[in-house]
Amino acid sequence: MKKAIIIALLLFVNVIVSQKRELGKVTVEELKEKVCPSDSSASAAVLFNIGEVRFDYLDGRGFIVTTRVRTKIKIYKKEAYELANKSVRYYLGGDVKERLTFRDAATYNLVDGKVEKTKLKSDGEFDEKVNKYWGRKKIALPNVKEGSVIEFEYTLESEGIGVLEDWAFQMSIPVLYSQFKTIIPEYYVYKPLMRGFLAPKFETSAKVKSVSSTSKERTEGNITTTSFSNSQFSYNETTSVYTLENIPALKDEAFVNNIKNYTAMIEHELTSIQYPNQPVKNLSTTWENVVKTIYDSDSFGGELNKTGYFDNDVTALLNGLNSSEEKIAAIFNFVKSRMNWNDFFGYSCNDGVRKAYLDKVGNVAEINLMLTAMFRFAGLEANPIVLSSRGNGISLFPSRTAFDYVVSGIELNGQIILFDATSKNALPNILPIHDLNWFGRLIRKDGSSVQVDLMPRSNSKDIVNVIASISNEGKVSGKLRDQYFDYNAFNYREINGKINNESLVERLEKAHPGLEVSEYDVQNKNDLSKPVVVTYAFDLDNDVEIIGDKMYLSPLLFFTMSENPFKQEKREYPIDFVFPHQDKYNISLTLPDGYVVESLPQPQAISMPEDMASFKFNLSNNGNQVQLVCTFDINRAVVGSEDYETLKSFFKEVINKQTEKVVLKKG
Q1: Which residues, in sequence order, are CB contacts of 41 under 8 Å at separation 6+?
Q2: CA-CA 20 to 30 A from 538: which of 297, 421, 503, 601?
Q3: Is 261 strand, coil or helix?
Q4: pLDDT of residue 507
Q5: d(Cα 414, Cα 297) in Å, to the nearest integer?
Q6: 364-377 and 324-338 are packed helices; what angle lies between their axes, rounded to 10 degrees?
Q7: Strands (DSSP E) found in 524-608
């Protein structure tokens, strides 16, 4: 009897649990909940996120891949309202057709102690064409408030079997329950690949599935007849279930490249196909095969080999130029000035290089394949380099979807020089930041390829010179000259190039309360051959503290780093500084009348192992002047997580030294 009662209770609990993981089952208790039990700081939590991929056989079409996703989210704070706007992309181009539909999308609120449901209306659903390859459907759920529960379901039907949808277990908010299920016929073998640092529970099972198929046959004669016949066939299908519960929010920490690279998620690679009575077709491939396939496609290699549209212009451009360096500079600057990027990524041309050249507008592939073709026309050893942009993440296995970008490379004097003409501010080996994602692959004319390191090696400098004086009231007044080199100059031009000086001053003063800026001037904003030089006069009211007959001040003034960006006890992701850099400060301060130096911070040199980073601080007093030379070097673009503790301690020492005070006293 006891055993029967226990079994009944367990069945009842299972029913309750399953009900909670169905859409439309929102409770008063869920709506009353004010904070996430597992993370009180969370703005929202995913109550469940359940995905399923199955293969359905349809007469005349073969197998269709259907991905079904059901999601339920609790909103705690206003910052999470954006979660009520869900968008999913689907494929438009080529022979592969996809259909995306949303359903059961609704918002639930507690009104007078009762559950009130607000359904998504037609004016809250949008369908847009991103480009000729991709479309995107969006929904905007209505009536979202603090305390709401939102839910939705979408289904994606696809005739493409090559790539299954990636599944992210982890999100930027806590996830109470996440499950991903695949139901795959025996004809297709996929290799699952996990990212991140959490391992889901895995279960698998197999069964035989029978499918009925109807065929028709037309008989020609005096009378045309059509006969139908039914047949059945069976195959094994394997169900794999991956489950994770109580998943903590994935925090986008400081200096992280793309958080997707470290998210707990699963991807699937199709490795082989074997239909009945046919040999196995192995699809597992190498990077070399992938890039050769890309190169051989009409929208890549076919476009790269077109030249007639620019011959006359480039011939005139090269007239009188002899050295490779002169030709490179002329062609690169010509393409940058003529072409305008439409912000579309991808390694395939959309409208083609000829039309892009005539219209002076193109996507990444059209601009940089055009550039490569012009380099080759000039007799240079130029080849395209496909890569995965920072936003696309780092790919774990060879596939054509691993890449979403292409740049140009010239092999000269044993070096590969990198070019990207989509940015007006780019230079040889100074690429847009979204290109800097570890490695790319250079594809030669014969289809062979070689891995190319995309990460900058030399330090980009930022040199600041300050000459200032301190008044008896503690105001610091002076002039500043700031020189930006290489990637620092590129970033300045990209971010500030189209902003007027008044707005730049306003931004500077807002970033440093107590600072007043005048005579602001920028030199070489458009002359890429020179560093960007910013000069201005300033008054600083709040850097000096006066206590009795003494003054206390930070010698780095408003450049003082006062907070360690590395706060986590443990870091699982690499630290990404984007590019190596050096910040150097030369500051000369004239003391106020009647004051002398009582004490100065002692000189100090700090370095990390293997010269990953270094800091030098040297302060001296000469009569009525205090002079500081401070140099801060980050010598690696990426520092591994295994060095996090060392890096964190290094920054702590740097901050301790920077925040030490110069003490002045009346003489």
Answers
A1: none
A2: 601
A3: helix
A4: 95
A5: 29
A6: 150
A7: 532-540, 544-547, 550-553, 575-576, 581-590, 595-599, 604-607
Cα separation, 44 vs 28, whole angstroms: 17
87-136 per-position pLDDT tens digit: 999 988 766 788 999 999 999 999 999 999 999 999 999 999 887 778 99
pTM strictly above 0.90: no
Which helix (H) or strand (E) is 374 found in, with range?
Answer: helix 364-377
Task: Pull the structure tokens for residue 614.
Answer: 């270094």
CA-CA distance, 94 to 98, in Å (whole number)?
A: 11
Residue with the two structure tokens 């007006």 = 424
Contact 616, 605 (CB under 8 A): yes
Cβ–Cβ < 8 Å for 270, 162: yes
Residue 426 tokens, joined: 């780019």
Confirm if 15 and 144 have CB atoms less than 8 A apart. Answer: no
In sequence order, which residues have a C-beta less than 8 Å from that of residue 418 and are 6 or more positions away? Answer: 385, 407, 408, 409, 428, 429, 431, 435, 452, 454
Instruction: Kindly list the distances between the CA atom of residue 238 and the CA atoms of 53, 157, 188, 206, 209, in Å, as whole numbers in the listed order.
Output: 12, 20, 10, 4, 10
3 by Cβ neighbours in 10 Å (0-12 / 13-18 / 19+) ranks as exposed
Dist. CA 478–CA 540, nearest whole Å = 9
- Find the helix or strand (DSSP H, E) in which 240 lies: strand 225-247
- Burial (CB count within 10 angstroms: exposed 0-12, middle 13-18, buried 19+), residue 571: buried
> What are the tokens at 58?
């349809």
Separation CA 180–CA 268 (nearest Å):
12
